[in-house]
Design brief:
By secondary structure, the protein is an all-alpha fold. Helix content is 50%, strand content 0%. The protein contains 5 helices and no strands. The longest helix has 21 residues. It starts with 15 loop residues before the first helix and ends with a helix.
Length: 131
């Protein structure tokens, strides 16, 4: 069995900001925080806390990215041509299947995904600057 090849390319210094922006957007897009509850009648049980006023359901959620910034990133991402966008979405936006499985389903080999990753990041950065 041969070792797995990397599907993501090494990001050069010039594209690090676009890489960080896409990572943050991926976290924002999949942020589905919901307090976990028991399926039984005790679903409202909160557990013991030393502070009587503490209620985890009333805790403010962390703001990962402001809404207007997320829309700007999304528009820039959709200006990237589809073959490159597919790779970027697989690498940066968490989904049910791992990125290497998604790319294998699309029949994108690791070498091609590394090339499309860099080119897609370059196009994304330019779209983000223009928009």
């Amino acid at each position: 069995m041969k070792p797995l090849q990397p599907i993501a390319a090494e990001v050069p210094e010039t594209l690090r900001q676009a890489d960080a922006t896409l990572h943050l957007y991926g976290r924002w897009a999949m942020h589905r925080w919901k307090p976990q509850r028991c399926g039984s009648a005790e679903r409202y049980y909160l557990g013991e806390r030393t502070d009587a006023d503490f209620d985890p359901r009333r805790e403010p959620r962390e703001t990962l990215m402001p809404g207007h910034e997320a829309v700007k990133v999304q528009r820039a991402l959709y200006q990237v041509p589809e073959p490159f966008r597919v790779v970027l979405q697989a690498l940066y936006i968490p989904q049910k299947l791992p990125a290497h499985v998604l790319l294998a389903k699309k029949r994108i080999p690791p070498k091609l995904s590394r090339e499309r990753h860099l080119e897609g990041l370059f196009m994304f950065r330019n779209s983000l600057k223009a928009g």
